[in-house]
Amino acid sequence: MTHHGSRSAPTSQARNDGRTLLSLSQRQRTDALLAQQQGYGWRGDLPVLLLERCWLRLNPVSVQGLGQVLPPDASGAAPELVRFRELHRSGLEACLAEQLCWQEFGRHAFQQALRRFWSAQEAGNHGWTLDRYLAFLAEYRRWMEADGRKPIPLVVLARAGAPEPHRIEWCWPSPTPMRHTGS
User: Fold this and answer.
1) Nearest to 151 by CA among 8, 3, 25, 15
2) pTM listed for this prediction
3) Pairing state between β 152-157 and 167-171
4) Cβ burial, residue 30 (10 Å; 0-12/13-18/19+)
5) pLDDT tens for residues 93-147?
6) Which is deepest, 7, 89, 99, 170, by most CB within 10 Å?
7) What is the distance between the alpha carbons of residues 42 and 9, in angstroms, rounded to a whole number?
8) Domain segments of the chain: what residues?
9) How many Å apart are CA 103 and CA 100, to the nearest integer?
């Protein structure tokens, strides 16, 4: 879908610069990527930077490959569990909502969806759920379609075994320096 006219940048995120988390050589590589993507709109080969803090490793991946490299946890979006939550929110007691889901999807399918969900919770997804992944993609797209400077997202990966979520920072191109001319 092509958008015409000027678009303003999203305002949901503060313009903190994720480059402050990077080493000098990582900042230089990021600056080169930032320079390359200025003037372009949304496309699948845009970079996403993954920072593994434990190893001080910065890995660029394409936006289209992100879901394979860092798969989002979609266990909570299983149709059986979505329906259960809808029924429960509508005022049904949990037991009755569960029985209705057994009738609609089958007891085995419902229990399997529930097991997958709790296994994912125990394994830890660092907050990288399908909803968060889709919201991230939408925000990146808004930044790329907006007028002005274009950032690159930096996903700061949570340490293994830590209860913290993956954090998303934005790396911004340096402002164009103003040149002064002598008279």
Assistant:
1) 15
2) 0.72
3) antiparallel
4) buried
5) 999 999 999 999 999 999 999 998 888 776 668 888 888 999 999 999 999 999 8
6) 170
7) 13
8) 75-123
9) 5
